[in-house]
Amino acid sequence: MSIHTPRGDTRARILDVALELFSEQGYEKTSLREIADRLGVTKAALYYHFKTKDDIVRGIVESMSAPIDEAIAWGRERPWSPELRDELVRRFADGMTARSGLLRFFHENQPAVRELNAGALFKERMIAMVQLIQGPESSYQDRVRAVVALLTINAGLFMLQEEPEGHQCPAADRQAAALEVALEIVQRITPEATDGKDAATEV
Amino acid sequence: MSIHTPRGDTRARILDVALELFSEQGYEKTSLREIADRLGVTKAALYYHFKTKDDIVRGIVESMSAPIDEAIAWGRERPWSPELRDELVRRFADGMTARSGLLRFFHENQPAVRELNAGALFKERMIAMVQLIQGPESSYQDRVRAVVALLTINAGLFMLQEEPEGHQCPAADRQAAALEVALEIVQRITPEATDGKDAATEV
Amino acid sequence: MSIHTPRGDTRARILDVALELFSEQGYEKTSLREIADRLGVTKAALYYHFKTKDDIVRGIVESMSAPIDEAIAWGRERPWSPELRDELVRRFADGMTARSGLLRFFHENQPAVRELNAGALFKERMIAMVQLIQGPESSYQDRVRAVVALLTINAGLFMLQEEPEGHQCPAADRQAAALEVALEIVQRITPEATDGKDAATEV
Amino acid sequence: MSIHTPRGDTRARILDVALELFSEQGYEKTSLREIADRLGVTKAALYYHFKTKDDIVRGIVESMSAPIDEAIAWGRERPWSPELRDELVRRFADGMTARSGLLRFFHENQPAVRELNAGALFKERMIAMVQLIQGPESSYQDRVRAVVALLTINAGLFMLQEEPEGHQCPAADRQAAALEVALEIVQRITPEATDGKDAATEV
DNA sequence: CATGAATGAGTCTTCATTCAT
DNA sequence: GATGAATGAAGACTCATTCAT
User: Fold this and answer.
1) Number of Cβ atoms within 10 Å of the Cβ of A137
2) CATH architecture for the domain at A10-61
3) Strand F and chain A: which residues 22-41 have CB closer than 7 Å?
4) D135 partner at 20 to 30 Å CA-CA among B202, C13, D55, D155?
5) Would you list the domain boundaries of chain C?
């Protein structure tokens, strides 16, 4: 169920296949030949549509930024409140669920992403999101909470997958559980209780 | 402050330099020439000590098992209790702080790690750790909490590094904040309260 | 001040831009994409006007034959004399000054020109010119003098350009100086004095 | 009769074969595969000895600079005089005769040489040579004469080769003729007669 | 007249690996 | 313990060229 591929549109198919392979095998290990082969075209065809290999990544990021951008725009128009905070987490989770491939790619290919300058696009968005969630006048601990909450969403999407024994769990359940834990984490974020240490021990 | 290099022996120096470069630039992007150059030896010398590049990774992993193994052994001898749970998180944090390079490498090079089956060794330990922390008869949510808590420790070690504006923060503070948030997260884990949803709203 | 481009017609503009780039960057290093880009058309458009890249070169050569051909025709109608000799050198200089781009291209891209057999056309003309200048019954030295005289004209056009220190010199002066040195050189050519050695020392 | 190849020394053999191919087919048209094939080694072997393709050119230039450097050093120790001037031309001719391959390469591959920054090494030497020959307080015309004299030497080495009809001429004779014409040209260079225009018309 | 899409052959370069010494 | 020399496989990228529209 790819996001791109609206039609026979080669460019979109490239993005699709590339993301698939990048997130499975990693950016470095995925060669343009592989992408081309799987699409039934030549490497040179990829270069007709994208100037370089990392331009493909840029293409993927751009083609997927819409939902996060919306969540950010939506959040910026409203004053911070616990409800806003939770809703942002939920919207993030929704947006990411459909984009888990991209997310996984970003998480698991940090070294490549760091120097890909396509990474910057994505990181900006994450930072904006974190800031909206933590709200104004919050402590560093609150920032950590916000970051970890988003991380938790991600964990639900792909890090909890490979479980042993009887802990196997359908994807939907995993994601639901992750969302709840994420909400649980951000719950501690409150404009008043700025001192994280107290918050951590007061219960 | 390298972990290896107890004596001047080359093998250990290779592991040291390799880990450093792997965690900075990624496994794929780090060539044996680079490692050799930084050590002032030839590529061929590396092959005297390690059969393949993968083998270097395996060497690194083995060299770091000790501290987690100890924490696991320590935990297994004791019955679960909130105090044990917290202590395990703290020990994990301590162990990881000293090995943050390896940790970062593992987190950021999943694709390489996955196919290197060197990851298996490490993953087993992580799973064991998670299990000890979540305790017996716990819910899936508890599992998520345990996983995320360890993730939080890691976040404190290297994911919160690149911050914008005035949010820059010394490493020690970051790690302390992360530890507290991690403890906060596992706090919800209680053998009795198996239903995550209630737990999330009851405070 | 392009040679081609009499009307807005594309074919001529292609020749113009191609010559410019060929003489700046060399034949091999200039891609059709570059030519097309600078013209604001697509590569495929070039193929409407020229069958191959080589064909563009051939087009350029043909478009420049006229002035030398005229000088040659003019020279053939007259009996050799020192005045004719000098006048041929002057006419050559005039003709080349207007085509210095092409000349430079020919001089600096010999390997490409050689295998393009487009060079043949040009070389024939040069040989004819040399022969007219050296006149009948002349020595091999005279031939060398004739060749070097033409070479000197060319040197004035583009080889003396990159000078250090205060030797920088406006193009017009460079060309004037070159012309005079060229005339100086051919002055030694005289049907009678066939022995170069004597000629070289008799002054 | 290659200059390198003192023994089975691969590095030297590479320089040899490379220069041969570069001067025959041009720098751009000569692929590393060709060089490697003709040597019976792999492309990768070339990269063991040279970091890049243009590093090979640098290697060639360096390996051939000795004779010109000697001529320059010799000339710098002496005050200018017509005899010095002529002797420099002769020494240049001698040095170049043995290096005609390199010379041809430089002449015919200007576009490549220009951006190869290996060209700088060579050009510096040529400029120094020109300066020594033209002597102090000389006119711009004198400079042109000096440049053209060296050019004449080069012409004798490879530009007069492809002659039609009965003008074919053994290499040694060609070079001898060229040397004499070159000497003839520099003869006009005299510290006193600084005004080139007079010189050109006074005869 | 011209373009958009694609190809096939080839380029330089890098890398992990090997082996005789 | 280590080096110097070399290899084979592969990688990203470029280019001239083609052709249906």
Assistant:
1) 10
2) Orthogonal Bundle (1.10)
3) 30-34
4) D155
5) 64-198
